[in-house]
Amino acid sequence: MLSARDIEHRYGNRLALAIAELTLNAGSITALAGPNGSGKSTLLRVLGCVEYPTRGVVTLDGQVMVTSADRWRARRRITLVEQRPLLFRGSVTQNLAYALSLHRVRGAGAERRAASALARMDLTGFAGRDARSLSDGEVQRVAVARALALEPDVLLLDEPVSAADPASTAALYRAIEQERARGAAICFASHQVEDAFRWSDRLLGLTDGSISPVTPVNLFRAVIPDGTGPRTVRAGPLEIQVVTDRTGPVTIAIPPDDIVVSPAPLRSSARNAFQGRITRIGDDGRGGVVLTVDVGVNLQAHITRAALQDLALTLGSAVVVTFKTMAVRVF
Ligand code: ADP
Ligand code: MG
Hints:
Elements: E1 2-11, E2 14-24, E3 28-33, H1 40-47, E4 55-60, E5 63-64, H2 68-74, E6 78-81, H3 92-102, H4 107-120, H5 136-149, E7 154-158, H6 166-182, E8 185-190, H7 193-199, E9 202-207, E10 210-213, E11 219-224, E12 230-235, E13 238-243, E14 248-253, E15 260-262, E16 272-283, E17 289-294, E18 298-303, H8 305-310, E19 318-323, E20 329-330
Parallel strand pairs: 3-8, 3-9, 6-7, 7-8
Antiparallel strand pairs: 1-2, 1-4, 4-5, 9-10, 11-14, 12-13, 14-20, 15-19, 16-17, 16-19, 17-18
Helix pairs in contact: 3-4, 3-5, 4-5
The structure holds adenosine-5'-diphosphate and magnesium ion.
The site of adenosine-5'-diphosphate has 10 residues, from α1.
């Protein structure tokens, strides 16, 4: 649906963005993760046709956007929610109605769309509130509701939960999933890699303005069954024992520092043990070693150089990875 090709964007002499190719498809959620200053906002602004790239083209359904008339047309179908959105003077409802009127939606249709968008963001009680009286988090939620009301083909969100509490965070990501079901192409930026992983179909990492696929380390999506205490959950091909109060869809993380690697099964109290082979031995950047072990899925484990030598581990070695139930993080 929306593509960027050979994009470069400079602020003065500084290169802020260098993207060879990025396509957002209909009915998909792409997450951009990266530290401050990595270019997330710049990329979203370029995709949103708000910022014109120094070089390269953005295309919408194959149509190259060159002139400002092209971009104005595109902006009827693309909605960008900036990290610090601006609301107009007036009530929350008036803000939504005004945005809808710019998109030529008026009257009963506009009222219905505005009410439904506010409800989806748990903002029904805010309809009559003066937009100037809202907290940062509320402004952000109203701006998302305003975007939802427009039913855009492409929805871009810049750190949409940076000022949100957990309940509004969940409401927001559920709304995004509904937008995907409607067929929208969605892209959101987050500096929280776990959130980005959990709520997207594809996670891209941005570093110094360039994109690389992120290989999330030992992260899995899982569904926790009802109950309490230790539960066994399916995480990719693995059955992992976890302890959590949570139920339903979650992200599971196994910290690489908490994984024990041994040539043979250990007699231990740890409930999670899987057999596999070492497929990669690398530097962990802290003077130790990061092992990638294929146990049906790749797990990364950190060990010391001394341990690597003592255990005579090499590429292809058969090993067992072991970790405690309590080491598994669930969020
Ligand atoms: P992120 O959203 O990932 O924090 P940004 O896209 O905001 O990153 O910024 C990328 C780089 O471009 C940073 O080095 C930032 O300082 C610079 N930058 C962003 N906006 C401007 C601007 N309007 N003028 C000058 N430099 C900017
Ligand atoms: Mg930003």
